[in-house]
Amino acid sequence: MSFGLFAILLVLFSSCQVKSKEAKEETTVKPNVVVIYLDDLGYGDLSSCGATELETPNIDALAKGGIKFTNGYASSATCTPSRYALLTGMYPWKNKSAKILPGTAPLIIGTDQKTLPKMLKANGYQTALVGKWHLGLGSGLVNWNEKVTPGPNEVGFDYAYYMAATQDRVPTVYLQDGHVEGLEADDPIEIDYKNNFERQPTGLENPELCEMMWHHGHNSTIINGIPRIGYMKGGEKARWSDVDMADHFLLKAQEYVKSHKEQPFFLYYAMQQPHVPRTPHPRFAGKSGMGPRGDVILEADWCIGEFVKTLEEEGVLENTLIVFSSDNGPVLNDGYNDDAVEKLGKHKPAGELRGGKYSLFEAGTRVPFITYWKGTIEPKVSDALVCQMDLFASIATLVGTEEQSTDSKDLLDVFMGKSESGRESLIIEATTRTALRKGNWLLIPAYKGKALNKQVNIEVGNSPVPLLYNLKEDIAQQHNLASENPDKLKELMDAFIELRGADYTKTQKLELK
Hints:
Blueprint lengths: L2 H25 L4 E7 L18 H9 L1 E7 L5 H10 L27 H7 L3 E7 L26 E5 L10 E3 L2 E2 L9 E3 L29 E2 L2 E2 L3 E3 L11 H16 L4 E6 L21 H22 L6 E7 L42 E4 L7 E8 L3 H8 L13 H4 L9 E6 L2 E6 L2 E4 L7 E2 L4 E2 L7 E4 L15 H15 L1 H6 L6
Parallel strand pairs: 1-11, 1-12, 2-14, 3-4, 3-11
Antiparallel strand pairs: 2-13, 4-5, 5-6, 7-10, 8-9, 12-13, 15-16, 16-17, 17-20, 18-19
Helix pairs in contact: 5-6
């Protein structure tokens, strides 16, 4: 072989090696991960899930272009526990502090605890929170006039722009990386959840100042014409505008994508709709015909459409896994008289399901659940049993690592549409009470207490006898099979005790037969 020919072959070989290396690098580019998390959205609130009175075209586009799960669950029927499970991969009932929190509650995620954003940071991701937090801040004695820590940044988020708790709780301010945005030094914030401040009007004592009237529990400090939970003084220039909140969070989410698109990112976009107080922007007020609750669902759908459009315009949509879900099921009157009940019409927020927020019945925890990845996930409807808690282990596998120390299950193939083998069982929770979903069956042990939460008009799942349902045959949970199927009742009760712990069943004095 001549030297010239050898040199040519060597160049060609080297060129192939470079191209092979480049091709390998291209195939190992890590996808962006976005979790869009709504608040109190019911399984029947979307037109893609059967709603006929509301049209949600942008969320429907995710469902039609991705995987719509018919058995997708939040861990809990209330917000804080579900958010805890989503971010930690742990059952919230293992943490006694994981319950609905006041705005002054300390951080309930340990700063040394494993979290989804920490795992992704360790694998080269940028991480961000935009929206609702409600997992506590600080150590219990928060001074809102200095940096509030620990918080989202200390549990894995590089960037965090958020409200501390909920829209109906004080403080009604935004924080960025622990600092209250727009706070003036000569107008410090004071917060108290027990005692009012002198000369501060409240919904209870000054109803004439309320533009939205409270129904129950929301009768403390009035801000923007809306009475809240808790008392607040000061921070006038820092207070948010309620009707602009959806636009505000959307802009922050869009800005984050635009400024971080060059490297893989994780964005937890925690929207506030349709939680109370429902304050649609004037563009959406009256559009649904169902009052503010319907209007803010339309608003949320529009926001999601605009956000997905930003992903596409920035050239990252085809390399982004989007997960869409809700923290718990629906509720109509959750503290304000806002026509949610009066203007409901034919709309069924829970669809065929029984119960709602606060309930162990299916509508409490079975929620809209969609995974979407343009060009990668093939559209389908999946009946696999999945939980938001499983995103931790599944996303770990997606980015090339492994997570087996939490309660999260690796269901990546299920979330990607390659398998229908979901969870075998799941413990669901509602206000410290727990139940078992196993296969097609749901067991709700006997619990003392009222069967109906009269304030919100929702059946909570309390019964003097165990409740047993075959959800495949009876999704509306109308037929309790406990007495006529004692073998199945025993099977599920034994499984429940094994998963939940004998100590729990003993302290709750559950009916085991």
